Amino acid sequence: MECLLKTTSSVRFGSIHHPCECPANEACPFSIMSLFKRKAASSLETLALAKVGETVRKRLSADPGVYRIPLDDLEIFGVADFFSAEECAKLMAIVDSVARPSPTYSGTDASGRTSYTGDVDPFDPFVLMLQRRIDDLMGIDPSFGETIQGQRYAPGQEFRGHYDHFLPSQPFWDAEQKRGGQRSWTAMAYLNAVEEGGQTEFARVNLSIPPQPGALLIWNNMKPDGTPNANAMHAGMPVVRGTKYVLTKWYRSRPWH
Ligand SMILES: O=C(O)CCC(=O)C(=O)O
Ligand SMILES: [Fe+2]
Description:
28% of the residues lie in helices and 22% in strands. By secondary structure, it is of the alpha+beta class.
C-alpha cells in the first residue's frame, strides 16, 4: 500500500526519514494512525489534568489550614508550618545525604539549575509518612506522585526561570508520556530560612515568596481547562547568604513509574 504521508513528507517533515509503509502503521510516528492516536491521547490527558485541577482546588479551598494566594491567573496555595522544626532538621540531613550537582531537563542550557539535588528514598518510613501527608492534603492518588526531590542551594546557586511541566518540543516529551504523562501540581516545601536571597519568584504574576521553614507551597502548572499555564513559570532566585533547602514533589496526569 502506498504511504500517503510519504508523498507529502518532504513538505511536512523536511528531510526526516520515516519507515512508514502504510498510513495505518502504528510503528511510524508520522503515520495517520499515529497522528490520530497522539491527538486522542492528548485530549484525554487535557481532560485528566482539568479533573485533577478541580479535585485539588476544591480540596485545598475547603481546608481552613490552607491559604489561597489571591491571583487571577495562577492557582497557588500556601500552608504554614506544614513540617515541624524537627521534621525539617531530619529532612535537611536526608537532603545532605542524597544531594549531588543537579542534572536538569533544560538540555543544552545546563546552567538552569546550579543547586545540588537528589531523590529522597521513597521507601524510608519517615519519608513515606510525610509523603502521605502531602498526598492527603492534596487529595491526589499517591500513585500519581513522583518521588520527592530534595535540593540544597549554596550562595550563588539558583534554579533559573522554568516550567515544571513538560513541553512537546522537549526531547524527553515522549519518554515522559510513557512514565505518567504531564505534570499537574507541584508541592514544594521550604525546610529552613535563608539569610538573604533564595526567594521563589513567579515573575509573570509578580509574586516573590521568601523561604519560610516548614511552609508548603502548592501550585497548579495547568490552567483550570487542563492546558499548560504560562504563568506558572518560576525561578529559585540565587541564594546570597546562607543555605537553602527545599523539597519538591510533582504530580502527573496518570500513575507515575
Ligand atoms: O527553589 C525554589 O524556590 C524553586 C525550586 C523549583 O522550582 C523546582 O524544584 O522545580
Ligand atoms: Fe520548579
